[in-house]
Amino acid sequence: MKNRLSKITEIFFIIFVILLCLSQLKWFYQSWMTLVLLIGVFILTILYFIKDQTKDRKKHLIYLGIYGFLVILYLGISHVHHSKFTSLVPSNFDYHLFSELLYFIKMSVVVVMLFLFSKLNISKKYYRRVIFGVSCFMSLSIIIPNLLGISYGSYSDQTIRGNFFTWFTDGYQKHTFYHLASKGFFYSANQVSAILLLLFPVLLYYLIKTTSWKIFVLTFLQVWAMFLLGTRTAIYGSILMLAAIVLLGLFYTFWKKEIKFQMKNLIYFNILILFVGILFPFSPIHSRKEVQENINHEGLAYALVEQTDDLSSQEMTREDKITYIEENYEEKRILEHFIIRSYPYIYDPDFWYEILQLPTELRTNWRYLEKQMLDRVIEINHNPYDKWLGISYTRVQNIFNLEQDFLVQYYSVGICGMILFLAGYFIMIAKISFDIVKKKLSHCFLPLCLLYASCVFLAVSYFSGNLLNSLMVTPYLCLILGYATKEVKGGMKYET
User: Fold this and answer.
1) I need a labelling partner for 351 at 20 to 30 A (CA). Which of 47, 69, 121, 465 fits?
2) Could you list the residue range(s) of the whole structural domain that residue 176 is in?
């Protein structure tokens, strides 16, 4: 019976991962897929507790029950707080309790996954196959459509106008990075970049450990795919990861002497480094820099010729400011969605008038404007408890989906909510780090790779969005942290 349950658990685990991969595709990136993934986590949890007959079973159930109670309690407290919200916009940005409930479920299930993936009795072989399978699927799903010229652009939903080979011919003379960076048929280039970045150190570890040509080909394909994505996360992240894991490999080869030096590794990594060196100067990220520099130069030129006899803010009436905004926001490169829909200028012309006076590099910085709008909304609400309880996820999304995950959580659920929903990651990272230090780094090459991957992922989440609040992304982080937890305890022996 126990063996049968183990087999069923492994099958459901594989199905869950397949659904995770499919959820990133544009056709499956829907709200119903989130529900399917929630059901998957629920089934895996039930299977675990049916199979778990140890003395810790009751303790684990109590802990999860206490956490669930705290989430429900916090939802009630925050609902009372959010119901008192006021703003200059008549709709108050359409707060809905049901939407908040769904968000709380989505965020709290992460804690269940962290627990689950660190406890499930799944062999290292299955973990390895899952990681290799996801990497292969995502890499080929980016490379093949790019070469065929049918891929979606990383920064748009339009088909790319040039494939990989045009990078080295006339691609950048005819097009910008918007038209050359590609994401295959995936919905979000940023999410796929973060997932591949999270898996990359694992591939590099196994390449060093096994010197397998198959793993080298898989690693090569993933590096290629990450450069095709053209995002800063993918390109800078892959370079950072490659450098760090090479240094770790040297440490465990020549200092700890736990890995045997092999000439194959030297050849493989030289090829990878050479490949990165060739691609980097031609990558879309350089074109992106040039576009931004051109915008800044144009803005500077515009500022030099701009009239300087405008009335001061104090001398202008509300109607004067509205007229000024309507006549100048397009020329000043303010995104129309921000000024018309996110935070309508008609309700707060003072704010938008001041924004239009900012330097070009700030006016064209979307993330800066997203944060400024939210800060203004909180300023108008003028409630000291916003710092601790947030203004609700629904309102933040209805204003704009801020592209910085930790700030999204801060504005949505406050400091208390961040502790409730995000502390699990840092507690597990601290525990893994403590166990590694306790072992004096001995036989900890893989746990260190997994730990490093998790830390970089969280750092990326600080600077980008839609990672920590997406159930289509967070399971990968939970998987890696669960893998590291089991590995550092020595419960999973290496298998060839």
Assistant:
1) 465
2) 126-282
